[in-house]
Design brief:
The protein has two helices and six strands.
């Protein structure tokens, strides 16, 4: 595990406040977003957020920071780093 931390370019962290505000660091790309779902990519794979009235209130891919507000009901990680593959593709058919 220590070797994995040393190889990451952007450490991934997230903070969820009252299921309404999600602050993330270590995001390398945004796959898709609408008011009910957001797909983000980290160096360890994809993160799918589900909810209602979701809004990206801050986005900086240079620093890897994203802030999302709304009613967050699920956060689903996928090991897949390929965009649009596997679990994420099945979730958004």
């Amino acid at each position: 595990m220590a070797d994995l931390k040393n190889t990451l370019k952007k450490p991934h962290t997230l903070t969820l406040e009252n299921r309404r505000v999600l602050s993330l660091e270590g995001i390398v790309d945004v796959g898709s977003f609408d008011t009910e779902s957001v797909v983000l990519y980290t160096e360890l794979g994809a993160l799918c957020l589900r909810g209602q009235q979701l809004h990206i209130s801050k986005l900086s891919l240079e620093t890897g920071q994203v802030v999302i507000d709304g009613e967050i009901s699920a956060m689903i990680y996928s090991d897949s780093t390929g965009k649009g593959q596997g679990l994420i593709k099945r979730l958004f058919k």
